[in-house]
Amino acid sequence: MAKHLQDTTKLHNGVQMPWLGLGVFKVEEGEELVQAVKSAIASGYRSIDTAAVYANEKGVGQGIREAIRENNLSREDLFITSKVWNADLGYESTLAAYETSLDKLGLEYLDLYLIHWPVEGKYEEAWRALETLYNEKRVKAIGVSNFQIHHIEKLMKKAAIKPMVNQVEFHPRLTQPELRKYCKEQGIQMEAWSPLMQGQLLDDPTLQEIAGKHGKSVAQIILRWDLQHGVITIPKSTKEQRIIENASVFDFELSQEDLARIDGLNQNLRVGPDPDNFDF
């Protein structure tokens, strides 16, 4: 179990991925974004997650470059993820999208590149492009996002390489036990986006009670719950104090009873789109 902010889990291809990272969904280009990335890295984060559709890769890249310089790090110390958007799913277009992302980020390679959504009839070709990038050693690891079990099974019928990561919506109201079990059996690392349900869980009485017992915030309880379930987590924040607080989850442990109570909050409730029913 992760004991430290820089602890990693080994993906099935041997690449080490940090258990906790910074998400930048809906953070606009600009100084706030650059500072968020810099304060995360300065306070010990080593993983940053962005996506083409977030339209903020330039600022993320700037923050990364400045943080590397200011903290005496090397590029290899960091784990950077981006994702190919739906409009670019296709063999050639996915390869081109990867170059565009690298260009905006100002990086030579990505540690993880994901297919953002399972667009029917398109994600298989996009996966072939990711396999090409991986085989050419242009990217360290490849994976998917928002894939249900049947999407992964369909992908695997033609794929030569199994996804290393599946990044999905995961929080105490959407615990996805079947998907989690399947990914574990397949050796696919699950990763949580929107782990705090966009703030909607912060006044939940059960979580507040458990937080009080441990002397922690509700956010810290949820992030610890992710980690104890073996799920990588990437909470989003632009405030330095919150960024630091979100990472302070390695000095306590939830009991089996705590975990069971949090699991019991599940309502199969999404804040994001349904991977089986989206039209973008």
UniProtKB/TrEMBL annotation:
Residues 21-266 form the NADP-dependent oxidoreductase domain. It comes from Paenibacillus mendelii. PROSITE patterns: ALDOKETO_REDUCTASE_1, ALDOKETO_REDUCTASE_2, ALDOKETO_REDUCTASE_3. This is Aldo/keto reductase. InterPro entries: AKR (IPR020471), AKR5G (IPR044500), Aldo/ket_reductase_CS (IPR018170), NAD(P)_OxRdtase_dom_sf (IPR036812), NADP_OxRdtase_dom (IPR023210). Pfam families: Aldo_ket_red (PF00248). The lineage of its organism: Bacteria, Bacillati, Bacillota, Bacilli, Bacillales. Gene3D superfamilies: NADP-dependent oxidoreductase domain.
